[in-house]
Design brief:
Elements (H helix, E strand, L loop, with lengths): L12 H5 L21 E2 L26 H4 L4 E4 L6 E4 L8 H14 L1 E4 L9 H8 L13 E2 L7 E5 L5 H5 L21 E8 L8 E5 H6 L3 H7 L3 E5 L1 H8 L13 E5 L1 E3 L6 E3 L6 E4 L4 H17 L4 E4 L6 E5 L3 E4 L10 E6 L7 E2 L8 H4 L1 H5 L4
Length: about 375
């Protein structure tokens, strides 16, 4: 006689009805919490390329002891050993220029910083731009929306039943796609801000962050040396093609971007090496046959995606601001919350230095300094 095996229940209604169960802020009538930041799409809008520019990273000026950044901090803790730190008690809008310099340094060192209960979303477009412009000239996205009455530098992140544009762009494939924003730019982003305005009702909509520094140093020394000196082509052609599927509503402010960058770069302040490839924008390695390039890049993409030992997950609440350095990280959305629920944020994206190639070194001595490899006689 067959034995009936009970199926685990997924019904959590009693838990959700409990007074102890926290729900994220929502308007009773279903309207957005921040209507001034609703997405606006203008198919006729065009922007000029910024071109090359001199960039001095503010982290160079920072006091390594971070006295201006952390003087009001009440607590801080790491989200994982290799990437991500959450800091409480600091209002980003109140930081002095010296505090912002130290923010750039710590973001470079830890990859990603999370700040809660921020008033950053309430200080207005111009003050937000002024603060973030401290880190570099602000990028204007090639097709993503901005606020109707707000500046084009404010890239709106929006998903809701009334606007499924983001959902449609990922239909039929995993929304978890590791990348560095706008890597096809000649001078890609550095210290970047996301301000969460409204999160899905109970959970979800997190950002995954992976350390590109640790992704590099976790490879064997001999393999790392094979990557140094390689050049890869980055292009946003796939993103452009996806946007053009919106037909007459498509927004195309700029032409397709295509740029060459080193596979291994050096951060201008910390001098740490990092992998600089991602499956969204990196197309092929210069000088390799297609099969060779695909094989190597797919290995590196899989390395980034599966090595959860150097990643973290950022959970948002309204008022959360994520500050991360895109030169030393990859990240991904999740889209794991119910279709139709509202997730609403904006991103301000300062451009930084032209990627610095890592020098090809016969023996950089890193293997001997890697305690685990040395103990296991892997050098």
């Amino acid at each position: 006689m067959p034995i009936a095996v009970p199926t685990p229940s997924t019904n959590t209604s009693s838990l959700k009805d409990s007074k102890a169960h926290l729900a994220r802020p929502k308007n009773d009538d279903g309207s957005p919490l921040y209507p001034d930041y609703m997405p606006f799409y203008d198919p006729l809008e065009k922007v000029e390329d910024l071109g090359e520019f001199d960039h001095f990273d503010p982290g160079h000026r920072a006091d390594p002891s971070l006295p201006n950044l952390l003087k009001n901090a009440t607590k801080s803790f790491d989200l994982s050993p290799h990437v991500g730190t959450e800091i409480h008690g600091v209002q980003l809008s109140q930081l002095t220029p010296e505090g912002l310099d130290e923010l750039a340094l710590l973001a470079a060192q830890r990859g990603a910083l999370v700040f809660r209960d921020q008033d950053f979303g309430d200080i207005g477009f111009e003050k937000q731009k002024e603060l973030v412009r401290h880190f570099g000239p602000l990028h204007i996205h090639g097709w993503a929306p901005h606020p109707m009455r707000g500046p084009p530098e404010h890239m709106i992140i929006y998903d809701h039943k009334d606007d499924l544009r983001v959902r449609r762009s990922w239909a039929g494939r995993s929304p978890v796609q590791w990348h560095t924003d706008q890597s096809p730019e000649i001078q890609p982003p550095g210290t970047t801000f996301i301000c969460m305005l409204e999160s899905p009702s109970t959970a979800g909509g997190d950002t995954l962050i992976s350390s590109s520094v640790r992704a590099y140093y976790s490879l064997s020394p001999k393999f790392r040396r094979r990557l140094e000196g390689l050049i890869a082509v980055h292009s946003n052609d796939d993103g452009v093609a996806a946007e053009l599927k919106n037909g007459k509503d498509s927004v195309m402010r700029r032409d397709v971007l295509k740029t060459e960058h080193p596979v291994v770069i050096v951060h201008p302040v910390t001098k740490q090496k990092a992998l600089y490839v991602n499956p969204v924008y990196t197309k092929y390695i210069v000088g390799y046959d297609k099969e060779e390039s695909d094989y190597l890049l797919n290995f590196l993409y899989n390395h980034i995606a599966t090595r959860q030992d150097f990643s973290c997950r950022v959970r948002y609440e309204a008022g959360t601001v994520l500050v991360w350095d895109q030169r030393v990280t990859n990240h991904s959305q999740t889209l794991d919350y119910p279709v139709g629920d509202r997730r609403h944020a904006f991103r301000l994206t300062p451009l930084a230095n032209k990627p610095i190639p890592a020098l090809v070194e016969e023996d950089d001595g890193e293997c001997g300094r890697d305690e685990q490899r040395a103990q296991l006689n892997l050098c």
